[in-house]
Each structure stands twice: as C-alpha cells, then as structure tokens.
Amino acid sequence: MVQFLQQLINGLSIGSVYALMAVGYSLVYSIMNFSNFAHGGVIMLGAYFGFFSLTLLKLPFVVAFLLASVGTLAVAIIVERIAYKPLRERKAPFLYFIISAMGASILLENIVIATIGPTFRTYPEVFSKVPITLGPLAIGRLDLIIFAISAVCLTLLILFIEKTKIGKAIQAASYNVKACALMGVNTDRVILTVFGLGGFLAGVAGVFFGMKYTVYPQIGNITTKSFIAAVFGGLGSLPGAVLGSVILGTIETFVAGYLSSQFRDLIAFVILIAVLVLRPTGIMGKVTEDKA
Amino acid sequence: MAPILSIRNLTKKFGGLTAVGDVSFDVPEGSIVGLIGPNGAGKTTIFNLITGVYKPTSGTIEFREKSILGLEPYRIADMGITRTFQNIRLFKNLTVFENVLTACHMNASYSFAEAILRLPRFRTQEKALVAKAENLLEIMGLMGYRDLVANNLPYGLQRRLEIVRALALNPVLLLLDEPAAGMNPDETEQLMRLIGRIRNDFSLSVLVIEHHMDLIMGVCEHIVVLNFGEKIAEGTADEVSRSPQVIEAYLGTSLEAADA
Amino acid sequence: MSWTYIQGILMLAGINMIAVLGLSLLTGFTGLFSFGHAGFMAIGAYVGAWISASPASTPAGLGLPFILAIVGGGAAAGIVSYFIGRISLNLKGDYFCIATLGFGEAIRLIFNNVNRFGGARGWPGVPGRSTFLVILIADVIAILFLANLVKSRHGRNMIAVREEELAAQIAGINVFRYKMISLIISAVYAGVAGVFFAHYMTFIQPKMFSLTKSTELTIIVIFGGLGSISGSVLGALVLTALPELLRAFEIWRLVFYGAAVILIMVSRPKGLMGGMELTPSGIRKVLAERNALREAKTKLLADAQSGEED
What we know:
The complex is a heterotrimer.
Chain A: H1 2-32, H2 39-55, H3 61-90, H4 94-115, E1 132-134, E2 137-139, H5 141-163, H6 165-175, H7 177-182, H8 187-212, H9 219-222, H10 224-233, H11 238-259, H12 263-278
Antiparallel strand pairs in A: 1-2
Helix pairs in contact in A: 1-5, 1-8, 1-10, 1-11, 2-3, 2-4, 2-8, 3-4, 3-8, 5-6, 5-8, 6-8, 10-11, 10-12, 11-12
Chain B: E1 5-14, E2 17-27, E3 32-36, H1 43-50, E4 58-63, E5 66-67, H2 73-79, E6 81-83, H3 96-103, H4 112-116, H5 120-139, H6 155-167, E7 173-177, H7 185-201, E8 205-209, H8 213-219, E9 222-227, E10 230-235, H9 237-242, H10 244-259
Parallel strand pairs in B: 3-8, 3-9, 6-7, 7-8
Antiparallel strand pairs in B: 1-2, 1-4, 4-5, 9-10
Chain C: H1 3-29, H2 37-52, H3 66-88, H4 93-113, H5 132-150, H6 153-163, H7 165-170, H8 175-201, H9 211-224, H10 229-245, H11 250-267, H12 280-309
C-alpha cells in the first residue's frame, strides 16, 4: 500500500510535467491541425536556459525559472515565424508542416550539440533532497513542487483560454479557422498566442524535467511521450491532454515499479497504438464525419 | 421489363437528423431519371447510399434485381454503377489522358508479376487500354486537351472529363451530381444534348441531380422530387410541375427565382 | 580522397536508396506518409543478421548464405507490415503518420529488450557481405521493379488513391488493397535495405533505427520530389553523400541539414524533380504537358475573343 501511494505520487509528478508539454502539442494541433514535433526541441532549450541561468548567471531560482520560460516563448515564436508561417501563407498540406517541424527539431538539437556539446549536465540542488515524511510516506520536495506549480500553470492556462478575449478567439479558431478569419478574428495573432503559451509552458516543463533527471541535447526525443499523451487524451483537446498525461505518467511509473523499467518506454507506444486502433480521437478528441 | 435500379423505403439518419426518410423509386432500364429538390433535400445522400459511400439505416437498394446493400464502393463500381461529384473530384495532377487511362483499369486483367516483368499479356492489354482511353477522349471531344493537366482544364471541361472518366468504367448506370452547376445557358444546352447522346451511344441508364430546371425538364423522362429527405412527387416533367406539393415546396420559389 | 572512401559513401547511399525507393512508392505514389520505416529496416537488419551470422558467434546466427538473409529480411519486414497495415491503414491523414511513428518506435524498443539479439548493446558479429557490386545490382533491380510497377494499371491505381481517394473508390479501385500492397512493397524494400545495412556495418544496434532515421528517409523522398523515381535516386545520392562529405565540419553538418530541410519545405516544396522523371519518356511527357497548356491557353483566349465579337 505504501509502495502503491509512493508510486502514485511519482506518477502524478511526472504526469504533470508531461501535461505541461502535452498542452503545447495540443494547442497547436487544435488550431493548425498538425503535430508540432519542434516542440521537443523547445522544451530541451528550456532545460538548458534554466540550467545556465542557475549555474553561469547564478540567478535565484524564480528568476531563472521565468527567464527560461520567456526564452522558450521567444524560441517557439521564432520557429513559427521561420518554419511555419511561409507554409501557412501558401496553404501547404499538413505534411509540409510536419517535415518542417522535424527539420526545426533537428536544427535545435544540433545547434545545442555543436555549441554546448553532447554531455549530460546535472542541475544544481535547488530544493533539499530530504523528503517530507508523512507517516510511512516519503514525498520528494521536488515532486511536490513540480506537481503544485504545474497545477497552477495549467489552471492559469485554462482560465486564460476561458476568460480572456484572445482565449475565446483561440477556442473559436479551434472549431473553424476560416470562419474565424471571416468574422474578423486576427488568426495570425491567435497562432502567435498559441505558440507563445505552448512555448512558455515548454520552458516550465524543460526546467522541471532537467531538475528531475538530467539535461542533454536529446531530451526532445523523450518528450515524444508527452505527444503520445496528447494523442491519448485526444489531440486538440486541452483537458484531454492533461488527463492523458497524468494517466500516462502514472501507468509508466507503475510499469517501471512493478514490472521492469525496461518496459517503461515501450508501454507508452503500446498505449499509443491501442488508442489509435480503438479510438483514434482519444479520450476527449472531437469526432467528425466526412461529407462526400 | 424490370427496372435497372430499384430503391425501397431507403432511410439514412445522421445522429438525430433524418437525411433521407423512407424514399422509394425506380430507374427503368435505358431511361434518364431526374432527382430534384431544394438544398438539403437529401439528393446527394441518396447518391452516396447507392454508391456505397454511406451505409443506409434501413431500406433496400437493388441493382438488376440483386441487393447491393453493404457492398464497398469499388464493388458497386465493378457491377456497373458509377458517378460524378457535385464538387468535382478529378485526379487533379494527372493529365486528361491519364485520368481516363486510370479509370480504364477494369478492362485489363494482367497481374503484378506480368506488369513488373513486362510480359506479352501486359503489353497487349496496355495497348488496348491506351486505344480505349484515346477513343473515349475523341468521342467526347477532349482529344485536343489530351496532355493537359486536369487542374488546368476550364471548369466546364473538368465536369465533362469527370463524365468521360465515368464512361471508361463501362457503366450500366451513370449517376450525375449537378453536372450543370456553374455552367452558362449555352454550356447547359450542350450538356443536355451530351447526356442524351451518351445514354444512346453507350446504352446506359442515367440518374441525374440538377438545379437547372431547363435541363431536367428537357432531358428527363421521369422525375423524382424530394423535400426534407422525403419523396413528395414523381412522374413526367408535366405531371411533376403540376403537383401542388412540388409547386409549394420547390418549383414555385425556384421558378420565381429563375425568372428574377 | 581515396576510392575506398568514395566507394564506402556510395555503398551507404545505395543502401539508403533501396529504403528511399520503397518509401517513395508509399509516399510519393500512394500518398501515405510514414515515420516508422526505420522499424522495417530494423526488422530486416536483425532477421538478416540472424540468418547469416555464424552459429559460433554471439549472438549466434544460422550461418546460412547471404541471399537467404536478403530474402528472409525482406519477407519478415513485409509480413510485419501486413499486420500493421491491417490495423492502421483505415486511419485518416496524420493519424496514420502517428501510428507508423508508434510502430516504428515500438519495434526499436522491442529489439532493445530482446537479449537473444544482443539487446541495447547490439549485435557485433554480422558478416561483411554487402559488396559494392551486390548493392549496385540490388539498386538496379529495385529501380526497374518500381518503374515497371508505376507504369502499369496497378501503379496508376495507387496514384489515383494518392490523388483523390473517394474518386478512386468510385472508379472501382479497391483503395484498401492498393494501400496495403504499397505498404508491403515499401516495407520489403526497407527490410532489404536493413539487411544490406547490417552486412555493411557488420554491427547493428537498435538505436541506429530511431525516429530520426525514419524522418531522414521521408525527408529524402520529399527532397527528391514526390512521385518521381529519379528524384528519389538523386535525393538518396545527394543527401547521403553530402553529410558524409561534410564530415570535416562534423558537428555543424546536422545543423545545416536541419536548416536545409526547413528551407526546402519553405521555398521549393515540390522537391528536386517535382514529379518529373529523368528518362526520355519522362522528358517527353513534361514537354507535352507544357505544350498542351500553351495550346489550351491560346484556344481559350481565341474562344473568349470570338465570344465578345458575337
């Protein structure tokens, strides 16, 4: 029982980091209908931004944390401007977006390898490693903080989407971009906002991911799992992305804990395939019927 | 003589919406039947049901007295039913000739191995396909555009190419979905004659959806009128245009609009 | 630069070319995009290695002739692709892409966990049977097979599926069957490429067949131009050789590569050949199309003018 609770807390903690990443995939998908594989590269940069702000610039954690997030926000928008905007203007098929995204992902990863090097780096200790004990349970401070801040960020995101004017425009655009443009919504601004939001949360996720594990140029590949979580929850749906992430994080932790850590990565892809076969629109994705 | 196509109590529901409700009618062999009705009356849905794109909720569709219910679209095409689309669906990046040649595939039977090893059967059948495609283009007056990429064809000719592509399948029953959409009166007139001609030359039956009343009245021997997914009248052009329900539901407003 | 060095690069390009040609059929001619073909390469590589490696080596193989390894590796990839196709070919648009990505990664991770085949540490004792001549012959066969297929009714049916799926159905084409055949052929090509790869490197490891490898194959097909066999051939030569020749810039070459991919997508999405073929009949076809367009324009212009005179 104790072990079960311990695993559950671990799972929720990693699941909430996946959720921060997954909403970035889902936001972009909901408006532009393609899977933005450059997002992994942006998250990786977030981890590096946070790392260097703490070690080189010796900034306090909160400042480093914000700096990393603002940095990734900028990177996400630059990627959009360079790699996607020309395609949008040409109304290119979704596949060109995916390939361009893959190109951007290769580019970001290798810029880091070429300039900073391929070595693994460990974050300095920001929070005490001594766990908080609650009866027989030992909860890592970091896990708790990650979970709390992620929850706050996601709540703010949902409030932003529900309450602000631009948030409402995002919602409307996710139903029908063309109609929105005709109604006078500035779709370019909607898209920039979406990349900005996704980019900001990518920074948060990158820092947490780096703190929990290590920092290295291929972190982007691991974030494929958060993409799977987004598919699992239903691509294009924010609550779906969060739910899918939390479930995936928990399942992974249990598989690693009770079966074998070797199967941890495999299970994500098994889930992905099962979802696509049984219900490709995921838990909460929109179902549409084609008209002939 | 038994009708070539016989539809009985056909119903299609999308969720709570009844797109087609309890519709029955026949297409007699060798005839041209018109299917008319206001927008959203369920005309294209009936085409999608006949060609197997949608599966009906209930009812029967018999082609030459055999049920074609639940068959895949390509099987239905194999049996001799083919169609054109309201929003043209050509193989856009292929040339006019390639569009027709592709559709001629049913006239050949060589296997993958024969194609890859270029065996004699492949060669002779391929020659026959090319001849058939060119012959069709010649008959239908598109030979002058043989090597033009379909996307670059003028709109009216794209519609015509779609009909040629359908004819390449040796159909027995041809379904035309608004073939005159976007055409001027001259072109519509030409199209009318063309439909009559292909019916005779290729000895087929035609079911046509159209908004142009001139075309329907001029070319169809029999007309079925739909409104809100239900059949409200059926008969010759004269009979239909005298039916009070039709005048109320459709012709009245439409003729006024046409006059205006 | 020595001949052995150039030969080595050409062999690698030739191996890549086989996989790219297969993917070209699936993507360029049938309109299906895959991010999992490295998985089929992995299956070919491992099955091929198992068939031809010596029973005395670790992991132990069967010690059978190379030709059986080629046939076995290709067939194994084809069989697996059949089952993958059964469950994923009905998915729409990018969900098929995502499914292939999932299968590709799953295959890699499975090999990571199969200790019989060396697990994550890899398989070192694969015999070096991939010679320049054998790869050259395989490339020629692969090109001829594909060219003849594409010019037959079967190939045209696949192109019809790419162009307009619903119209293809209505034209009596069994869309699912042709997608399946295209997927299986492309997987067999990838599998055979995997066999050659294993017997060229003499060492294989699951991480050689990652998502990056799948992406690279798709990028080459697009770079060469969708729907062009000559484009795929040139693409494989240029994009395999170029990074190798840029070895001097070692760490920066992948940066250029990523930037080049974005640049290609943004500037010339039709790729090198843009659907054209560099053969006498291919050139004649392009000229005929241009000519037809010119004639059609004059004809329409003349019609419009005579219409105004009425």
